[in-house]
């Protein structure tokens, strides 16, 4: 069965011909007149086995489809994960490779035990944070060596101060993508099982680079408090966020109860086209906004104060500017918006990775848009419930 590693993708795997097919194959070749038929049978059989393996790629490891009971077998250095049952469950395991199947090596690279994993930074701030959190969780779950390359470090070093993952050793020289073996999703954007195979040592003592927006919430959500410390904002970000909230408090009537700040992120711009084309869905709009505001106004009468940030502030203002309890972020940078929303007590989010992180870091209750999609979406009710994020509350979008 195809594991998605380089050897399998290139077609290097043992093909086992069933005994019955093998006998028929030899009988066909026994007569010269049957040579063409025999060769045809052989090629059809090989193609059948190959296609069967290829089709299995999309569901062998799938975190976000039916949960699988997994067994691992080393075969010509290629692991095979086999489906054991078809029972549907409501939760996801944080990892899929059991410790009994891990392979450890004594081989080192610049003083680091192999395998070594890094990540090519892809996307904007929310994606980068998801990639970092995924690397962090690989280290915590599998005790694998994880390092940060300079390309990745440049994306976060001015925003977060306490990131603990070490840099690539200086003795290794500049990071060159071509020197690393890529691992990414297999079958769908939600299925990054190959990175776990690499972390467990099942793809060999190599240097691996994570590709294509790895964002494994089911792996890292149990390290929430650790990640909130990892993503400690630099003083200039926290100072601005605290100043913004303090100014609201100072201008608030003394007759009103102490404010409960609710961060509200509205994702727009390119995501409108993306969620339609990729997921057959649409962005939450006025109906959802009204419903979400009402939820917190009911829960915290006269105390709820909403802090809105968006990649389209003009749109957000056109929908929410009429409310006296809604305030808008200055919107100077993604880091400042993230720090401001993360400083709130509770959260409202729409779609996308940025909103997820504002809520994850804020730490309170999270109201999110219950969007309907044609294929499974990472930031959806189905995913959040499988992971066990019970403080995420879905609200209808229409």
UniProtKB/TrEMBL annotation:
Primary enzyme class: transferase
CDD domains cross-referenced by the UniProt entry: Fut1_Fut2_like
Keywords: Glycoprotein, Glycosyltransferase, Golgi apparatus, Membrane, Signal-anchor, Transferase, Transmembrane, Transmembrane helix
GO cellular component, one term: Golgi cisterna membrane
Pfam families cross-referenced by the UniProt entry: Glyco_transf_11
Assigned protein family: Belongs to the glycosyltransferase 11 family.
GO biological process: carbohydrate metabolic process
Gene Ontology molecular function terms on file: galactoside 2-alpha-L-fucosyltransferase activity
Protein name: L-Fucosyltransferase
């Amino acid at each position: 069965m195809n594991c998605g590693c380089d050897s399998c993708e290139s077609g290097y795997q043992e093909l086992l011909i069933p005994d019955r097919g093998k006998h028929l194959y030899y009988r066909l070749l026994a007569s010269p007149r049957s040579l063409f038929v025999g060769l045809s049978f052989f090629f059809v059989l090989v193609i059948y086995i190959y296609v069967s393996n290829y089709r299995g790629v999309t569901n062998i490891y799938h975190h976000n489809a039916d949960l699988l009971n997994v067994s691992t077998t080393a075969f010509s250095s290629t692991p095979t994960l086999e489906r054991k049952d078809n029972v549907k469950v409501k939760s996801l395991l944080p990892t899929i490779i059991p410790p009994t199947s891990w392979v450890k090596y004594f081989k080192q690279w610049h003083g680091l035990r192999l395998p070594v994993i890094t990540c090519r930074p892809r996307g904007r701030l929310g994606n980068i944070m998801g990639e970092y959190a995924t690397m962090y969780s690989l280290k915590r779950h599998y005790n694998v060596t994880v390092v940060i390359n300079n390309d990745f470090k440049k994306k976060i070093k001015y925003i977060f101060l306490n990131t603990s993952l070490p840099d690539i050793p200086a003795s290794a020289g500049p990071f060159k993508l071509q020197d690393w073996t890529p691992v990414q999703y297999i079958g769908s954007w939600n299925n990054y099982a190959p990175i776990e195979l690499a972390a467990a040592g099942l793809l060999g003592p190599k240097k691996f680079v994570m590709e294509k927006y790895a964002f494994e919430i089911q792996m890292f959500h149990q390290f929430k408090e650790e990640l909130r410390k990892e993503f400690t904002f630099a003083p200039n970000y926290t100072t601005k966020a605290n100043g913004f909230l303090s100014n609201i408090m100072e201008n608030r009537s003394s007759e009103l109860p102490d404010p409960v700040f609710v961060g509200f992120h509205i994702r727009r711009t390119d995501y409108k086209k993306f969620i339609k084309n990729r997921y057959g869905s649409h962005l939450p709009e006025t109906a959802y906004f009204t419903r979400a505001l009402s939820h917190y106004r009911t829960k915290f009468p006269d105390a709820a104060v909403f802090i809105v940030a968006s990649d389209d502030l003009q749109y957000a203002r056109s929908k929410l500017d009429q409310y006296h309890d809604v305030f808008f972020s200055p919107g100077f940078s993604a880091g400042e918006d993230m720090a401001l929303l993360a400083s709130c007590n509770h959260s409202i989010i729409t779609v996308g990775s940025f909103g997820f992180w504002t809520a994850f870091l804020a730490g309170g209750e999270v109201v999110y848009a219950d969007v309907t999609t044609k294929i499974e979406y990472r930031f959806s009710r189905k995913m959040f419930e499988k992971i066990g994020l019970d403080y995420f509350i879905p609200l209808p979008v229409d």
